[in-house]
Amino acid sequence: MFSSSKKPKWNADKCKVNLKMLVNRFQLLTQKKANLAKQQKRQVALLLRDDKEANARILVEHIIREDYTLESYELLKQCVFPGYC
After folding, report:
1. Spatial contact of 37 and 63, defined as CB atoms under 8 Å apart
2. Which residues of the chain have pLDDT under 70?
3. Packing angle between helix 53-80 and helix 12-49, nearest 10 degrees?
């Protein structure tokens, strides 16, 4: 049944290149989310200035969720890629 299929070969060089690309993608995504969070914090300040507290609360909840995501990215980078951080 499985005798005709070939096993994929392990290529350490290809794995190393993919890991480096993954680290770069993590850094870009982290920067993008951090910049977006800064913009949203400014938007919250404007909403509070205009007495739109309900809208500001919703946006703050979203900012907090994104902050947890950023922290999880940092943990992943420290645990999975200790040599790159």
Report:
1. yes
2. 1-5, 83-85
3. 160
